[in-house]
Amino acid sequence: MAEESPGLLMALKLAGWGWRVAPGFCSRNGEKVPLCGDWTKNATTDPEVLKRWWDERSWLWPGIVSGVNSCLVLDADSPGAVDWLRVPISVQGWSGGAVVYKTTG
Length: 105
Known about the structure:
Elements: H1 6-16, E1 21-26, E2 32-34, H2 39-42, H3 47-56, E3 61-64, H4 79-92
Antiparallel strand pairs: 1-2, 1-3
């Protein structure tokens, strides 16, 4: 059996938390590209659907639909934004409960 892709493993973890996942990637110009049609409607927590999407394209990364009954997303797209975000995190002493990943785009 082939090793699960990191994107699928993260998608399954996020879905396990009840967050609806949409597959996508980051283009060369930095654009986030979802690959399931209308991603806000087609995102899912169904593990079988997620596995099918990642079987077709193992290099995908998960996106989530945030909002009511979901999660708060802070999108820090530059090194300066990431450094800025580290200040309140360190002051508040937040630990765990957050998922951070960076695409290679």
